[in-house]
Write a structure and sequence with these properties.
With 814 residues, the protein is an alpha/beta fold. It has 22 helices and 31 strands. The protein has four domains: 227 residues, P-loop containing nucleotide triphosphate hydrolases (Rossmann fold, 3-Layer(aba) Sandwich), CATH 3.40.50.300; 77 residues; 228 residues, no CATH class; 106 residues, no CATH class. Helix 1 packs antiparallel against helix 2 and helix 10 crosses helix 11. The longest helix has 23 residues. It is globular and about 100 Å long. The relative contact order is 0.10. The C terminus is likely disordered.
């Protein structure tokens, strides 16, 4: 009988803090309270204390109407679902709250939450020493389940927002019988549940979503996301990308980009940026191979209507393309007379070369990681996202056959696996190639006339649930390591290591042992960089189901369709747009920050202030003043503006208010004191300025990056070490040659030789792969180049351009 590993759940400090922030707020910070504090004035005071403790800004009291709502930020991969399920248990035990509704935006997330509700039921009951919840997934065909909300049982309902956000939904219909002659929704409204919103930016970002949530008549709403859009709700707790990265609670990020150079042998063209209006027409910039001396190099070419790319580049590869017939700003493309298009992000002409190079790199990385981790009991998984099923599997009247990328994968895998004897140590070495990969796609069910078939999808249809069910069903199976000689591990899922899936199903994947992610999609695909990395951020688990913490190997590699610099810059833009990071300080940055001010009596506020719960500070309030009464003080717009001006004057921020990594790394204790003194001169209380410096330092602190040049020399004891010999075999071949020749003889051989071109070595086509580590902090995303590898491409089918027109055969020679 097959034995599947089981995940062990770990008590993590930051998850406990997130739960505590909610419970403390709703208890009025009273450890003995057994009822929720919902009276507006009391609740608002409690909220301000929570914000003070967690260094968050106060947004004003509008969050209280029509019902209290709070934000909790949890980075992808840090256990957001675990946090809000633990919060449900804590609220039930502490306040005897029994009715909860979890609202999610999609079927993918619903499938994941349902899986967690099922698997965590006993565990959560044990650790909270309370009764188990009963949960159900709302189904309009089983509407009677809503009657469970009428009693006093501990109930959790899971639903998508689409199930109740329209008047035509079954849940909103009037019934003459049952439900006491009313709407099914009234069963929920009468219970005044605590509502949990998973990914609120997708649930109630629009008016219809907000009205749908309000229709539940919630007692309080808790909003959990890695990307909060609505900032009007107090942030009770924040564990975002920077905090998770710096706390080593997610994998580090690495990107590998491939730059293909075919030296003009391929008609490559790519739209560089969105076309721009120039006068009454549009102008576009494309990247194409242009003749530069005796070579063809990628250059930026400006195109207008009716321009010829051939004439602009002097490259005969583009001669048959004809002239520009359309420049389209709405859909971002340039079309030529032969029907070819230059589009954003699409490396037309070199796409297949790029895919092959990236897939080979992924397979090599995968196998090398397996060698390093298999003895630790960590199974390595790779995810390859496609946007068309036919690229993985083709269905014909004769049955199913492999698509182009399935065939390409098998070809490369076999070659790489047998390219080095070290891979013979892999447990999976003798597993047939067709068993190491499989597809997870939506399926049409089998009928008498046809078998089950994969289908293209948008990710949120009824048929997509077949894929999500398979993903959840196989989760632990995919984490189980296949070991030859152990029949209990001889399963399809255990042998499977390379997973092909539809890009629209990305939200369904949260497997912790994904170390490699590649996306092969059309330029129109809207996958963001955050979405690309999000499926691989979780800390991996071993065969005991325990998290395996190891910064040197906990790295997710993204095989990007751009350079590592472009990936890092693009990721930073996405983080800035989402408000995840901020490197700019303006006059309102500190407004709303809550600090505590000491006072001698109720009417006379003193000068001493502090921010509670600071993890590190160079300044502290004298102990003898600690007995003075304290009141909370909210930083005013005027105080915030003054402090922002001081940061500019002391060169902490530049003229645009931007904070740089270099400045933060050189921020000494003396420099901080200089800021405080300058602020005091401008009228800020010294202790208030000190608290603001503490906040600023913690908010924008930059982690120390390991210097890869700091290397230690070690003495090799075993000179027969196989790893050393393998390394030496690779590097020993890189030899410099020195050639001596007479100039006159060389010229004579070239001019008068029987075949003057026979011995000319043309520059080879290359794929240059650059690997870089992505570093993240509260202010920016940076990149650190790790390695560069140049692969020489071979393609005998490609014509070679004649760089020497004197041959009399303009354009080509063979």
């Amino acid at each position: 009988m097959a034995i599947i590993m089981r995940i062990n759940y770990e008590k993590l400090p930051y998850q406990h803090e997130a739960v505590k922030a909610v419970v403390d707020t709703l208890s009025g910070h009273d450890d003995l309270a057994t009822k929720m504090v919902l009276e507006p004035e009391q609740l608002d005071e409690s909220v301000q204390e929570t914000l003070l403790n967690n260094n968050q800004k106060y947004p004003g009291a509008d969050y209280l109407k029509p019902f209290p709502q709070f934000n909790i930020e949890m980075e992808t991969g840090t256990g957001k679902t675990m946090v809000y399920l633990q919060t449900i248990m804590a609220l039930h035990k502490r306040f005897n709250e029994n009715k909860f509704v979890i609202v999610v935006p999609s079927r993918a997330i619903k499938a994941g939450v349902e899986d967690s509700l099922n698997k965590l039921k006993d565990y959560l009951s044990d650790i909270y020493n309370t009764d188990k919840y009963h949960y159900f997934v709302y189904d309009s065909k089983q509407i009677s389940e809503l009657q469970n909300f009428a009693g006093s049982n501990f109930e959790i309902m899971l639903t998508t927002v689409q199930a109740f956000n329209k008047s035509t939904n079954v849940i909103n219909q009037e019934y003459n019988e049952g439900f006491f002659g009313g709407r099914p929704l009234d069963q929920i409204r009468d219970a005044h549940p605590t509502v949990i919103i998973d990914e609120p930016q997708s649930v109630d970002g629009a008016k219809a979503g907000k009205e749908a949530i309000a229709s539940l008549s919630p007692k309080v709403t808790l909003r959990y996301s890695a990307t909060h859009k609505d900032k009007q709700y107090p942030m009770l707790y924040e564990f975002g990308p920077a905090q998770a990265y710096q706390a080593h609670m997610v994998k580090h990020i690495e990107t590998l980009g491939t730059e293909v150079n075919t030296n003009g042998n391929v008609a490559f063209v790519q739209l560089k940026e969105k076309p721009k209006p120039i006068g009454n027409s549009l102008q576009a910039k494309v990247i194409a191979y242009k003749q530069v001396g005796d070579e063809y190099k990628k250059k930026t070419i400006t195109l207008n209507q009716n321009d010829s790319l051939f004439e602009k580049t002097a490259n005969p590869q583009y001669k048959e393309w004809g002239r520009v017939v359309e420049i389209n700003r709405a859909d971002d493309f340039v079309e030529f007379e032969n029907g070819k298009q230059a589009t954003l992000g699409n490396n037309e002409g070199e796409a297949q070369i790029w895919i092959q190079s990236q897939m080979e790199a992924l397979i090599k990385d995968h196998l090398n990681r397996e060698l390093a981790m298999q003895d630790q009991g960590i199974k390595v998984l790779s995810l390859i996202f496609l946007d068309e099923v036919k690229n993985y599997r083709i269905y014909t009247a004769d049955g199913a056959k492999k698509g182009q990328y399935a065939e390409l994968f098998e070809k490369i895998y076999e070659r790489v696996l047998h390219s080095n004897p070290k891979y013979k140590k892999l447990y999976n070495y003798n597993v047939p190639v067709e068993e190491v990969h499989d597809g997870y796609f939506a399926q049409d069910k089998a009928t008498k006339k046809k078998p089950a078939m994969y289908r293209d999808t948008k990710g949120d249809t009824k048929k997509d649930e077949t894929a999500y069910d398979a993903i959840m069903q196989d989760k632990e199976g995919l984490l189980t390591q296949y070991i030859p000689g152990k029949p209990e591990t001889d399963t399809k899922a255990a042998k499977l290591r390379f997973i092909f899936s539809h890009s629209a199903l990305r939200e369904g994947w949260d497997n912790p042992n994904v170390f490699q992610i590649m996306t092969i999609t059309t330029p129109k695909n809207d996958l963001t960089r955050r979405q690309k990395i999000g499926r691989g951020l979780r800390i991996p688990v071993n065969q005991k189901g325990e998290r395996a913490y190891n910064d040197r190997q906990n790295i997710v590699t993204i095989y990007a369709s751009e350079t590592f610099e472009q990936f890092a810059n693009g990721l930073q833009k996405e983080y800035l747009q989402d408000g995840v990071i901020s490197n700019r300080i303006d006059e309102n940055t500190f407004a709303g920050l809550i600090i505590k001010k000491r006072q001698s009596d109720a009417d006379d506020i003193g000068n001493d202030t502090e921010i509670l719960n600071q993890k590190s500070s160079d300044f502290s309030v004298p102990d003898e003043q600690s007995e003075q009464p304290q009141v909370m003080h909210k930083i005013t717009n005027e105080e915030s503006n003054t402090f922002a001006e001081v940061l500019k004057e002391t060169k902490i921020t530049n003229s645009k208010g931007v904070v740089t990594v270099q400045v933060m790394r050189s921020l000494t204790k003396e420099k901080k004191q200089q800021i405080v003194n300058k602020a005091a001169e401008k009228g800020l209380e010294e202790e208030t300025a000190t608290s603001m410096v503490d906040y600023f330092t913690n908010q924008y602190k930059v982690p120390v990056i390991e210097n890869r040049q700091n290397k230690e020399h070690v003495k090799v004891i075993n000179r027969n070490n196989p790893y050393l010999n393998d390394l030496w075999e690779k590097i020993a071949k890189k030899v410099n040659y020195r050639v001596e020749f007479k100039e006159e003889t060389l010229i004579n051989d070239i001019v008068n030789g029987s075949n003057p071109l026979a011995d000319i070595q043309l520059e080879k086509m290359t794929a240059v792969q650059k690997r870089a580590k992505i570093n993240l902090n509260k202010t920016n995303v940076s990149n650190e180049l790790i390695s560069t590898n140049t692969e020489h491409l071979e393609n005998s089918d490609l014509p070679i351009l004649d760089n020497y027109p004197t041959t009399g055969r303009p354009g080509w020679f063979n």
